[in-house]
Every structure is written in C-alpha cells, then in structure tokens.
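S.,

Sequence below, as promised.
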Amino acid sequence: GSFYMIGAYMAYALSPVVASLFGGGFFSVLIVGTVLAVLLGYVLEWAFYSYLYDREHLQQVLMTYGLILVFEELRSLLVGDDVYGVKAPEILAGVMPLGELMTYPVYRLFISGVCLALALGMYFVFTRTRLGMMIRAGSTNREMVQSLGIDISFLYRVVFAAGVAIAVLAGMVASPVSSVYPGMGNQVLIICFVVVVIGGIGSIRGALAAALLIGIVDTFGKVLLPQAAGVLVYVLMALILLWKPDGLFKAG
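The prediction came back faster than expected:
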C-alpha cells in the first residue's frame, strides 16, 4: 500500500522534473519512476528485510508496519496533506463510444492493458525462465537452493525490488484516475489483503483469479446494490473462507 502511494506521488512530483530534464511526458515519468522504485526496493531489502528472514513472522510484520508509519510521515513532510491531480497523457485522454448514449475513457483501457501485460509477464517469468524456477524453488526450500550454489540473498533482493517496482508502477498508472491524496495506500492495502486471502496465500494464479472476482463483484455491486457495495467484497471473502478456508488455490 505504501509503495502504491509512493508511485502516485512520484507521478505527481516527477512530471515537471522529467519534462524539464528529458522533455518527456507521462510515459517518461513511468520509466523514470519504475527505475527509481527498483533502486528503492533494493536498498530497503538490503537495509531492513534481509535481517528478518530467519526471525519470526511477527517481527517482519512489525518492521513492515513501522515502515508504513515512516512513509506516511515522510509524505506529509515532503509534499503536505493536500490532494493533487495528475493529468493523463493527451493521446489517452479521449473516450470510446459504447452505443449511442455511453462512452468509456480510453485511459481506463490503457490501465487494463498494463494490468494484462504485467500479469502475462509475471506468468512468463515464473513458469518459463530460469529466474522463475529459482524464485519458486527459493520460496519452497531456501536451504536446498543455497546448497546448489545460488545466492538466495541476492535472489530475494531482486524479487523484493521487482515487487516494489510493480506496486509503484501501479500507483503511477492509477494516479490520473484516483487522484493523489493522503492515506490512499491504506485502501489499496486492505483490498490487496482480501485478494491474497481469497486467492490463497502464496498462490499467483489465486491472486489473479481473486482480483478478477473482486473486481466483478465490486463493479456490479455498485450498479445493482449501491447501498451495500462497500461490504460485498468482504462478504465474498467470508463466504469463500467458509467454503475453502485456505483460499481458492494452493501455494504455487
């Protein structure tokens, strides 16, 4: 959630800087922000998380919660508590007609395309590359991977940096639609938690299936049951956990 928030604020803060230095627009901001996010994730994993892998999960949770508070305070000190807007690129600012009475923003189609590209890219990396094989093996049996001569610490660092970059990219891409405001990462964090619980902890395909299911339930809920739309996602989570306590899919 914090990295998503950082991405949104990056999109706001980097736009004038990138425009003045490189003469680029929104897409240049996405590239620069993603590179900075990789560096941020790499440093954070090296400085904080690398010391926690052999400790209890509670200590990892406490470290994560502490960093959430730090990021929120830094945001307030650096950019204040106002609400900001990020302008979508001109090429994606139009609408697509849906019949005679309805239209759909082109930029939202762009967001969908980015999500699909990321999902397919992650699927390819995890299932078709040597790096993906090492990641899957390292998440299952760290000691065995180390005994085969693989630097598991560096592997964890790369995975964490990639995860931070994806979260930051999501925040940057979503910023023209959601605006940029304090606490925006908390809302995303809750939804991400629901996605992981419904899909099954440790399951990539479960996370994808749960995200799509939550999106459908939330969208149709706002149309058909607007007064109860805010709780439908959590009702869905409760029902699925009653049916399958471990989530839709096993880890893997």
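The mean pLDDT is 89.

Coffee later?
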